[in-house]
Amino acid sequence: MPIYEYECQACGHTKEALQKMADDPLRDCPECGKPELKKLISAAAFRLKGGGWYETDFKTGSKKNIAGAEGKSGDAGKKSASDSNKASNA
User: Which of 28, 29, 40, 48 has a C-alpha 20 to 30 A away from that of 6?
Assistant: First the structure.
């Protein structure tokens, strides 16, 4: 669901509202009560809910919570060591 920004043309109050795209725009200012709220044009914002892809995509380093990541990196190190032993024996 997108987060929309509004600004009151009467008093200058700004507000963010979590709304469905199909919802009608807000009209009444919560500060002054006048029907002067106007939707601002800004970068789109939305909230991701639940577990999912962003768990691994936006975290870096040790903050990532990837199942089996340690086993994979350990195996890669063992393979490269055995490969270098084979090369030195040849």
Answer: 48
